[in-house]
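Example record for the data management plan.
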Amino acid sequence: MTTFGVPLLRFDSVSSTNDVAKELAVSGASEGLCVIATAQTAGRGRHGRSWSSPPGEGLYLSLVLRPQIKASASMFITLAAAVAVAETLRLDFQIIGDIKWPNDVLVKGRKICGILVEGAIDGDRLQYAVMGIGVNIAQRGFPEEIGDGATSLLLEADLVVHPDDFLAAMLPRLETWYVTAMTKPDRVIARWEELSFSGRDCRVRVESADTSIEGVTRGLTPSGALIVELASGERREIVSGEVKIRAVNS
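Corresponding structural encoding:
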């Protein structure tokens, strides 16, 4: 039986917890192994973007996962992680967050958490996956390149929280939603849609390598793709790309 956080490895500083967890996964680490760092020197998010990881001011963790699923179903891991973080913010810290497809949790339009799931593929199946989560806990300010696009528990609720306290609240939810994603993914989709304000009836621009579209979000498909309705009424299923929120319809 998988138990998230067993074993739990702590480091003062690493380049990226995902890098460490991937090395351990390749070496045969079991599902549930958790890597936590006080600081990251090269934390990253999707599309190679950097993730500000000052010492002691955030929760920086990665989990080794060995799901028995096709690689095409890996989106459910990301969605499950976002649900777990959003629930923890809401139920334990009374902070209402919004999940922006597919992997960011926002508060009042500013990012408080990023999720990066990376894996190795064997044929059409995942050999392993590494779930990386960064939560801004105690930051009072952020690097200039981030500007006003980020926030923290301290800034939003004036809460002095130790990263371990957030971890203790989040980890059981993370495991529950991961197991649910592997067995009943429709429940993850439903809960994601309940917690995501921008996932439905929100004006967005979606940018990919070769094109961009604008439209209104209409929830998720059963496979976890974002549905965007264009002005013409045509509906597109988004499986990759950068979603930029324009405005939430009243």
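Summary line stored alongside the record: Residues 203 and 247 are 5 Å apart (CA to CA).
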